[in-house]
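Assess this one:
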Amino acid sequence: QVQLVESGGGSVQAGGSLKLSCVSSEYIADCGMGWYREPPGKEREWVSSVSSAGIITYEESVKGRFTTSRENDLNTLYLQMNSLNVEDTAVYYCAADCPNEVDLTDRFGMDYWGNGTLVTVSS
């Protein structure tokens, strides 16, 4: 059973930056990993993902602003968020698809989830 714990959320002004971390209780090198977010009053949506092979993809609205990385030796996934805007306000979740990753952009296909960390961006 993989347990994921996110950290790094907080309040920031528009244009600012935050870096989220997600630590896994288990070895993640064989897992596809993803970041999702749930804006207030909206459904959870895919933000970014990195496959076990290291292929990274981003949702269109965060391209060029967000950077996903992973350190398998530390069982940790990161999300560097720059140029934040009000529309980025959400609870951010880390998710893992192990061991047979399929579609990392599909939240219904992810096997394990963290409890989320809140990011609030003010204008």
Residues 74 and 106 are 25 Å apart (CA to CA).
